[in-house]
Amino acid sequence: MSLFFKRIVSLGLLALLIITQTGCGANPERKVSDSGFYLDTECTITVYDMDESEAAGLIAGAFDLCADYESKLSKTIEGSDVDRINNAGGKPVKVSEETLDVISLGLEAGKESDGAFDITVGRITDLWDFKAEDPKVPAEKDIREAVSTVGYENVKIDGDTVSLGGDAKIDLGGIAKGYISYKLAEYLEENGAEHAIINLGGNVVAVGTKPDGSDWKVGIQDPNAERQTVIGSTPAKDQAVITSGIYERKFEKDGKIYHHIIDPETGYPVENDIEGVTIKCASEDAGMCDAYSTICLLKGSAEGKRFIESKKGFEALFYKKDGTVVKTDGMDFEPAEE
Ligand code: ADP
Ligand code: MG
Fold first, then answer.
1. If pLDDT is split at 50, 70 and 90, which confidence band does 259 have?
2. Which residue's CA lies nearest to atom 22 of ligand 1?
3. Which candidate, 273, 287, 239, 291, places its Cα nearest to that of 112?
4. Do the beta carbons of residue 31 and residue 44 sit within 8 Å?
5. Residue 10 · residue 60 · CB < 8 Å
6. Ligand 1 neighbourhood includes 287 CB (under 6 angstroms)
7. Ligand 1 pocket, 118 CB below 6 A?
8. Single pTM value for the model
9. Ligand 1, atom 1: nearest CA belongs to which residue?
10. pLDDT at 62
11. Does the Cβ of 146 fall within 6 Å of ligand 1?
12. What is the separation of C-alpha 39 from the centre of its chain, rounded to a whole number of angstroms?
């Protein structure tokens, strides 16, 4: 969907929302919510305990901001910062501050994970089309070629420019949504929202507490059920709760599941014991939190748990393919009632 069209849809939804909420006055929580399709996923923003038309305006502003970030960070939007870097033939490209931020974070995540997380996987992820009507496993030769281009060491930041050596392509899909979710939280707070939930396709940031002062309870998606069905919840207050799973984007071919978390050494989806993972941390670390969720999916539950235990301020919950849950000591989790 084009950006323009998405905005129209989002404005349309918003108009509908305001109309439905002015009628009866039966909205004790003064809850205003809107959804839109951005960053290739369903995004929802809900603001509580605020003047309703002010809240609706803020939510619309947050979605505009989201579209703006997407137009800089997406590798598939022509003219985005990332697109310009990817097509500059190695020359330095002047980019926005946000793009510099996300790329620096991505490079840091690359170092911390010894290259398991690598923002230069773009040529590989280009080959795997999970949205095609009849998705195909790419040819082995194409995968080998794409794998040979990967290497985050080829990304150089100099002042406000980024250059990308070799024949690689940058893909910020494993980190951008987390980063943006915090930026939207910041925007809401700066403009007076005290209680809000931002959810960018499983990248949740809880702004403040619930209006009554208690913690939010953020649901953790059940990988094997319909959307909105949860395995349980974790309390959150000014925190990011980021869930990612191999169930998100996938297809099945000849009895084998292919999903969107790619081992940069092989070019194929990673295979281990995890179905989904949830990472929690302070809101402002949401960008790294998103990268860590991808890193955990790449590492498996035992190594992923050790990785998160070594990071101060981060907690993790792993939902394993055998249906069991493993978590770090500080991760509060309340299972859903059967
Ligand atoms: P989701 O986008 O479903 O929330 P993630 O946050 O785990 O899931 O990110 C997955 C995305 O990260 C992929 O769609 C792709 O764009 C990118 N990606 C896949 N494999 C890697 C990798 N090894 N390193 C960095 N990014 C990756
Ligand atoms: Mg991620």
1. very high
2. 117
3. 291
4. no
5. yes
6. no
7. yes
8. 0.92
9. 244
10. 98
11. no
12. 8
